[in-house]
Task: inverse folding
């Protein structure tokens, strides 16, 4: 760093072009040193040294057999001895972290407050139906993608995927009777762009420019991942002097809103709406979200979309055995109320709340997949929390994500009898996403369900799963999701499930009924096929996944969160020694976002470039084929 200090001193004293050149050359030299050091693996074992895939076993259809894996209730007697780590939360981030550590022999205990493992990948069964609550479709699961390779290793190759139709989404704009439909396609033959050109033949220039931006952001996103691992002080230096933007254009795109880029691309309002439509997959409207974040999502689906055969519960069901293989456990009904610190302020264990008496569990490493707000505002001792800067000051622009409403419907009839599609509908009442959402969010709780919901996601999970007809003959399911304001329901957050009162039910059901009414405008023949109907609100989300304000996507995916100044601060290591973070708040929301956060967290924990290890395994797999 002496060389760097001299260069900075020279620049300050002379303010000449020569000084700037010296500083830039010095920086590039040091950055290469840092990046090369990251590429050199430590003495930690390589979790991906072996390909652990084996031929997939027949799908397990016995609920009791699966529940023995997914619903292992917590007791003190089940806690393994001599733990290496404790993971708080069994979502995809927590399970990924635990599984990777287990691959090198670490004994990991995963604690889940809900009655089954999986986080947003869990399912529930009611009235003879099964519902996936958070997994609707996943991208990048074609053979030999790095995402597929990683999933295969986490599950020993047992998790199987069904490719969905080429037209995986349909965007519908306008109110009933005046609706315009735009198919969204994916595939290896540039299907996404071709479908856009067919829908908007006069917008070739704008569409091609958008595609070029997608490719640029994807190519430059590697530097964003590196900032999670480069020492924070080095990141601060790169950002403060603007050097990061000399190396990569990624954060130039990250610092722009999706709406700003759309307004620059075209004057066609429907095209803007279609290019922006899946902001609902992360919950932040175009005028507030980062364009780079949106590009990551669009890129995720370009080559195809997939659904887990057997439903979302298959994910945790096949990861848990890889954790148990090294002596670890995944236990449910184990609400962690506190992260324990030793006399030196180091994380050393957790406290689990049980009616029979709290249980303290100790381990040399604690990994929280419970989210940034839960970890720093609820789980750390109050004396530590009060001494820290507020989260919003430590991570500029960070805030809670938006709440969500979900409607789960059981239908009598097969997908063939009911004519159900495997693709999704994204229905918008207007092509101005921001305007319509602002109007909706500003409604009172009593008025929230009186007028049309401006954003409605409609999907039929049973139509995507080839195993469904055998497991649930003569039945089908529909799921709908929209955004919702936490304040509409916050006064009932401490209420008991199904016993929150008439006023709560009235507001919740009014929104759910309006969503179903709008759904029936597309599928009117389903009206008399309903056998089960359930509406979940933001306080339902809080109860099941412990999201503090009913958010399903973790931290808000606003522009500020993805700026270089904040992005690198949301990293695996914390100021508390031996305490690490994982999960969607570290990277992005979604199945793959949480999974890669687990990989990034293990990189930091093990001091090893696991991305390079996974990439090397991928090359070996391709070569073997």
Result:
């Amino acid at each position: 760093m002496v060389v760097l200090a001299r260069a900075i001193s020279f620049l300050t004293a002379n303010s000449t072009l020569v000084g700037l050149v010296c500083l830039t050359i010095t920086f590039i030299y040091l950055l290469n040193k840092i990046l090369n050091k990251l590429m050199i693996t430590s003495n930690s074992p390589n979790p991906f040294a072996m390909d652990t895939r084996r031929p997939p076993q027949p799908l397990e259809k016995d609920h009791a057999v699966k529940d023995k894996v997914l619903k292992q209730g917590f007791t003190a007697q089940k806690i393994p001895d001599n733990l290496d780590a404790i993971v708080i939360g069994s979502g995809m981030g927590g399970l990924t972290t635990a599984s990777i550590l287990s691959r090198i022999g670490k004994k990991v205990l995963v604690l889940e407050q809900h009655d089954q493992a999986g986080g947003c990948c869990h399912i529930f069964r009611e009235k003879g139906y099964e519902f996936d609550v958070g997994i609707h479709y996943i991208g990048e699961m074609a053979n030999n993608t790095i995402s597929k390779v990683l999933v295969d290793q986490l599950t020993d190759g047992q998790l199987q995927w069904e490719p969905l139709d080429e037209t995986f989404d349909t965007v519908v704009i306008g109110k009933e009777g005046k609706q315009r439909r735009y198919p969204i396609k994916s595939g290896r033959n540039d299907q996404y762009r071709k479908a856009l050109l067919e829908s908007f033949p006069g917008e070739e220039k704008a569409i091609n420019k958008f595609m070029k931006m997608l490719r640029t952001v994807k190519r430059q996103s590697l530097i964003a991942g590196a900032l999670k691992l480069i020492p924070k002080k080095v990141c601060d230096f790169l950002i403060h002097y603007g050097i990061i933007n000399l190396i990569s254009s990624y954060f130039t795109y990250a610092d722009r809103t999706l709406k700003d880029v759309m307004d620059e691309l075209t004057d066609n309002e429907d095209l803007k709406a279609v290019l922006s439509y899946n902001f609902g997959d992360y919950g932040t409207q175009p005028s507030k979200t980062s364009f780079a974040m949106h590009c990551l999502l669009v890129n995720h689906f370009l080559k195809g979309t997939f659904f887990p055969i057997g439903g979302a519960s298959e994910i945790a069901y096949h990861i848990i055995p890889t954790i148990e293989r090294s002596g670890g456990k995944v236990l449910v009904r184990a609400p962690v109320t506190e992260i324990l610190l030793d006399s030196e302020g180091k994380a050393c264990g957790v406290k689990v709340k049980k009616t029979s008496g709290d249980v303290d569990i100790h381990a040399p490493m604690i990994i929280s997949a419970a989210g940034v707000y839960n970890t720093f505002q609820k789980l750390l001792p109050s004396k530590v929390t009060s001494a820290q800067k507020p989260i919003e000051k430590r991570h500029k622009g960070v805030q809670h994500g938006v709440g969500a409403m979900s409607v789960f419907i059981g239908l009598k009839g097969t997908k063939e009898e009911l004519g159900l599609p495997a693709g999704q509908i994204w229905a918008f009442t207007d092509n101005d996403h921001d305007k319509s959402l602002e109007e909706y969010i500003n409604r009172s709780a009593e008025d929230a369900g009186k007028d049309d919901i401006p954003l409605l996601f409609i999907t039929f999970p049973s139509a995507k799963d080839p195993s469904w007809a055998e497991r649930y003959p003569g039945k089908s399911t529909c799921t709908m999701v929209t955004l919702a304001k936490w304040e509409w329901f916050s006064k009932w957050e401490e209420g008991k499930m199904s016993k929150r009162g008439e006023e709560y039910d009235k507001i919740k059901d009014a929104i759910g009924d309006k969503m179903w009414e709008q759904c029936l405008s597309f599928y009117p023949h389903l009206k008399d096929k309903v056998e089960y109907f359930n509406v979940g609100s933001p306080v339902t989300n809080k109860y099941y996944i412990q999201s503090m304000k009913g958010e399903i996507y973790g931290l808000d995916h606003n522009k500020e969160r993805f700026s270089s100044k904040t992005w690198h601060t949301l990293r695996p290591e914390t100021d508390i020694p031996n305490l690490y973070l994982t999960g969607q708040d570290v990277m992005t929301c979604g199945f793959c976002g949480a999974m890669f956060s687990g990989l990034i967290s293990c990189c930091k924990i093990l001091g090893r470039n696991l991305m390079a290890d996974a990439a090397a395994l991928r090359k070996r797999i391709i070569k073997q084929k």
